[in-house]
Sequence to fold (364 residues):
Amino acid sequence: MSDNKKYWCAFSKLTKASSSFVNVLYSHFGSVELAWHSEVYDLWKIKGVSKKTIEGFIEERKLINPDECLEYIEKRGIDYIYLEDERYPELLKYIDNPPIGLFVKGNIEICNLERTIAVVGSRRASENAKNSLKSILSGLHDTDICIVSGMAEGIDTVAHRSALDNNMKTIAVIGGGFEKLYPQSNRRLYEEIIDGNGAVLSEYWPDVDALSFHFPLRNRIVSGLSKGVLVAEAALRSGAMITARLALEQGKELMCMPGSILNPNTEGVYKLIKTGAAVITNYEDILDALNWKIEKRFEQEIKSKRFSDDENKVIECIKKDMMSPDEIILKTDLNINDLMIILTKLEIEGIISRTNGEKYIMVQ
Fold:
């Protein structure tokens, strides 16, 4: 399999052959190595492949050394996940024209690919849309839900930032190579994501520019990785609407965040809502649309710890509302000495904290 990796990597370096062409070759030959070394007369036998595509592949292949390709990315600390790799995202395998491989910075394996939500929208998003999206995503804080987006300016940036701010993982799919990161204004965001908070993915060779026609192709990966797609703001003709169409074709749950009817960037949103997309005004709407239940990481940690009956009584009180020791005593019938011992223990363990008003709250 390691030998195969270099051939997949070499195919990813091609600029004149699309992923759909490589998928056809792989399907025809049943081996990526055989596909790479295929003779012209074998290529002519493949139905639906143009003479121009074959000639372009043959000419470009002469300039590419698979061993050097693999060495190139390894020296730069770039991971590469290809179709035969067991780490290749299962959801992507079943979309039309799946990427033959993904260059990876960060760690996609820490992301729960069974709980993914794509968020797409306008690069010139309104402040109302940005604030609404922040509010909605904040309700998912401390869950294993992973936010997928394209790291563009506007809505994409807010989606990734909200994931980071709310202790969730996030995946960014970019439209160019890692060495030509676009937009540069998101360099810091890129660094934060790959520093233990998720992964940045690209199907393009590291030195490839982010060209305009790459972004619609990028969108199939954004929606393909996701269980559902949330459109936060979209004009009738926009990349977000392309992603929405792809989501429907891929059988994903389509969700829309409503906005001002006076904003041209909501025209696409309301068109999608009229055709059946779920309306999202809070995080519970997302959970309902996807039929998900959530348990915050903090709640999972509490369940994993063993507490005495009295300690559990105190936790249950404070979970409902911040309380003073006197209020807890009224609810639990504990004496003050026992209660203070329990409160001190829970505070040391980071389960609760004390406010300035001498009340106790749960640590979220």
Remarks:
- DSSP finds 18 helices and eleven strands in the chain.
- The domain at 111-168+216-290 is CATH 3.40.50.450 (Rossmann fold).
